[in-house]
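Box 3.1. Reading complex inputs
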Amino acid sequence: MAQERVVGIVGYGSYIPRHRIKVEEIAKVWGMDPETIKRGLQLYEKSVPTPDQDVITMSVEAARRAVKRAGIDPKKIGAVYVGSESHPYAVKPTGTTVAEALGATPDIHTADMEFACKAGSEGMFVCYGLVKAGLIEYGLGIGADTSQGAPGDALEYSASAGAAAFLFGNGDVLATVDFTYSYMTDTPDFWRREHSFYPSHGGRFTGDPAYFKHILGCGRALLEMSRMKPSDFAHCVFHQPNGKFPMRVAKMLGFTEEQNKTGWLTPWLGNTYSGSSPMGLTAILDISKPGDKIFMVSYGSGAGSDGFIYTVTEHIKGKPELAPKTRPQLDENKFYIDYGTYAKFRGKILKAG
Amino acid sequence: MMSSITARYWREIPQRYRGEASKSKKTGKTYFPPRLVEPKNGNRQFEPVKLDYEGNLITYTVIRVAPAGFEDQGAYALGIVELPGGARITAQIADCPLSDVKIGMKVRVVFRKIRDEGHEGIHCYGYKVVPA
């Protein structure tokens, strides 16, 4: 019998732009009460990309950090999958630019994923599968977004920017992938039609029949197939459209606030869409210890969830220090901007001429 | 439609995306952008090297009336940065208020979008520097 390949994460990296806008600043413009939003959605501020940053630039930065932590030759990367709903081009791949910037071309397979907020975990799942099948030595799965909320819409308080990259391989993995499970149905809770600038959503319909149904469906199946219980895990991380939903879904599955808090970044980061739960996973890996088990379930509208169970190995030691950690990127060196600057940065207002 | 800058940008991908430079096999000097012929001695023997991504700001200027394609970027700083090995690059200084730009400051090279070619052309990516 062939020896089973130990497949998992060999390197990871995150990137968060330095600019932030506070909930108060957005609420002021639209005549809303910031305290209601902060209390109701558990959101305080969000990251904002400068005009020279997009999904490609953030993916490159996160991927370079993942490669640095893995300490591998980029030429050995056999696949790059970038998951996003804000790819800079309608037609022309994000992945080729990222692969070129890493120096991983031309012996590589790339594809761009799109599945609302789940596209990042899709790339991770495919890389894991390809490495496990022995088709590639290393695969890079990236979740990145510079998502937009329509002016005045509830999403404007959350839609933010960031990227998380994971390099999958076998051998000296810093976290093994022990189980995966995915759960999908056709659920129209959030969408953007072609040529529309901003997405539309089903308001409260995005809750129970969408976010909660899929994460619970995926999470419960994952627990059942692994024969594990929530108390077996050091950390859990879920998709984070706001601060409130991931805390509530964690509790519904039987996890504690303590298990969920390390990867819970949205109150200060906003929703990085395809980067959301992957970004939480980077924050967890930054502080995790050998033997820690991690439970992750993403969610993408439309709708579906990808679930993973990881076990951190001895090879994690010293890796977090090799590149910028996620939490310091979130907490330090911030620039706060006003709504006018934000509107310019996000292309909501344009210079005449 | 093929635009005027598409092919040029494509040709410069190795240097713009990955900081690929050329190191003279005769004098050991690193040239960026890469050269085919070394000035003064006519040497044509080079080996490709990758620039280190941390260096010092040698000098800078503030562009207040930006050229075409950069009009939206307002006042921005453009600096000359010396990298280990002696190569110097000219780059925009991003993520830094103009009042904080100082000669001698440590900077790091990052991957950014330099400009868009109008509303329908390509996005032009390359390097900028940010405070290290």
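In summary: Chain B touches chain A at residues 13, 17-18, 50, 71-73, 94-95, 110-114, 123, 125, 128 (CB under 8 Å).
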